[in-house]
């Protein structure tokens, strides 16, 4: 199947070809014709499935209909509401990429940066606006944007927006939009709260789903390394160093912890940076760019900061701490092994986290293999962790071997040795 056979105009097919895509992904093949028909849509798809192009392309086609632009003047015609600044930047980039052969204006607005340049940009007129909820409401409050003529609304990662407490902002925004419009709602999960939101918002929606076949839990190689909490950093440095991992996304639970870990890794000679909600937009963009360019080896992120990050074919994801919500585990490991590439997701689990681990395993309906890295261990209850001694087995994931590492990066001696030496 080709993009033009989906009914997309030549300018869009050309932009897609420029990106090097050969064929639509499953979500694109399903969603694009439905959106072009003008249907409301409920999509269950996560980042990595090609869903952004799945909604951006048909919306651009609609906006490009001749004679439509002058009718709306300065008013926004397509609005995508997204949970995070990073996702706003990424979706806007897609709009720019796919719309590059069309004469349409787009911009992204999000919090954490000066509002004035955004007001100026909006004053020049924008057809397709990508926004986070809070900043968009601020702009509405300052009369900087007219949403009364929105023709297409996208709520992207709706579940995450609800998790982040944006429901009131979203309801306020919805009240500002015209009744008659096309609405597309994407969510990784369909909780009661999402269904309730969708019921009041969508009109006879079509539903699209990407098949279970693509689920990260099925395609990503997962492993648990039991380890005492106090020795996690040491083990992480060892794994990164001995496995010569070049690009690792590490998940921590708190902003403070993420900062501290990045600092400690740098002390261990591993180039690392942290990305979370307290960092300035500039710092977050810089860290992400450096990580993508290979200048930073380890990016330590909190769940919210990492959600929606488009980093292609990330080879390693490490759960430095398990998430409190089992579902976040699936989002986290979905950062690796994308588009058919093989990925590894490793969780460093301490005794205190054994309950969380069991919840995750219940949620993904499988047991994650335990593997003790020699010299590190912890009692994580229930299932006994097996110490791998075979070279082959140890090397299967991340080249962990049962031998002592040949080359270590300024690694501290294991605490038992330190105690003995003291
Ligand atoms: P998304 O799920 O929208 O975040 O997209 C994930 C990644 O897939 C992005 O890097 C896109 O550039 C890429 N992508 C989107 N559509 C296609 C396609 N049809 N073929 C190959 N890659 C694609």
Given as residue ranges, the uncertain stretches (5+ residues, pLDDT < 50) are: 384-422
User: Which CATH architecture of the largest domain is right?
Assistant: 3-Layer(aba) Sandwich
The secondary-structure class comes to alpha/beta
Summarize the main sheet: 7 strands, parallel
CATH top level assignment of the largest domain: Alpha Beta
Helix tally? 19
Number of domains: 2
Radius of gyration: 23 Å
CATH superfamily membership of the largest domain: P-loop containing nucleotide triphosphate hydrolases
Q: Which cofactor or ligand species appear?
A: adenosine monophosphate
How many beta-strand runs?
Answer: 13
CATH fold descriptor of the largest domain = Rossmann fold
Main β-sheet, spatial strand arrangement:
3-4-2-5-6-1-7
Mean pLDDT: 84
How much helix, percentage-wise, in residues?
A: 40-55%
Question: In percent, how much strand structure appears in the residues?
Answer: 5-15%
Form type: globular
The rounded distance between the terminal residues' Cα atoms is: 68 Å
